[in-house]
Amino acid sequence: MSRLRFRISISLDGFVAGPNQSVENPLGVGGMRLHQWALPLAAWRAPHGLPGGEVNESTPVVEASLANIGATVMGRNMFGGHPGPWDREKPWSGWWGVNPPFHHPVFVLTHHPRDPLVLEGGTTFTFVTEGIEAALEQARRAAGGRDVSLAGGASVARQYLVAGLVDDMMLSLVPVLLGSGERLFEGAGDDLHGLELVRTVAAPGVTHLQLSRP
């Protein structure tokens, strides 16, 4: 069976986003500091249609996170837009424009039904109202034997983790303190829900911790 894989940047004090998240500031105050290690990388820039970039110890980590992915699951907050029912007059179509970097089916968990959103490059957003297991089941079917990426945000990732459904988790630990915001492991208990640390990679501005289910 395909594996559910999750990668996220996290601060030393356990936050994956800063305070006061909004449509204008989706990562919250200071949240961009968590991603400065990745933005210059050629491996990050290429899927976003950007030329050039750096190569360092983080390059194989990012490349591995993108390899063999056939579908993605994400939460409503990760997809973005306003809370509540979808605006039929001006429906939100994500942060990524008409050609998102996924290029495969994406399943968005939401409480509000919506028809699938077909965009360029092979990305279709399907909106799932039946919960995390239903979204994962649909994603695995769509992935056709390849792995499924869990894109977050923190609330949805925590639900999958506590349910014991995450097979691989890469925490990119950034040496900054945000002080407040959204914690990844808030209320997640005091164990790793079947995951074990299998690899550590030190890179400029970040240390990557690879945890996997045996």
Structural commentary:
The chain has a single domain, classed as Dihydrofolate Reductase, subunit A (3-Layer(aba) Sandwich). Helices cover 17% and strands 27% of the residues. The strands form two sheets. The protein has a nine-stranded mixed beta sheet with strand order 5-6-4-3-7-1-8-11-10, with helices on both faces. With 214 residues, it is α/β, with parallel strands linked by helices. The mean pLDDT is 95.
How many extended strands? 11
**Would you identify the CATH architecture?**
3-Layer(aba) Sandwich
Low-confidence stretches: none
Task: Assess the beta-strand content as a share of residues.
Answer: 25-35%
Sketch the topology as an H/E string, one letter per element. EEHHEHEEEHEHEEEE
Task: Characterize the largest beta sheet: strand count, sense, and whether it forms a barrel.
Answer: 9 strands, mixed
By CATH, the superfamily comes out as: Dihydrofolate Reductase, subunit A
Indicate the mean pLDDT: 95
As laid out across the biggest beta sheet, the strand order is 5-6-4-3-7-1-8-11-10
CATH topology: Dihydrofolate Reductase, subunit A
For the record, the count of structural domains works out to: 1
SS element count, helices = 5
Task: Please state the overall shape, judged from the principal axes of the Cα atoms.
Answer: globular
Radius of gyration: 17 Å
Can you tell me the CATH class? Alpha Beta
State the helical fraction: 10-25%
Distance between the termini: 14 Å
Structural class: alpha/beta
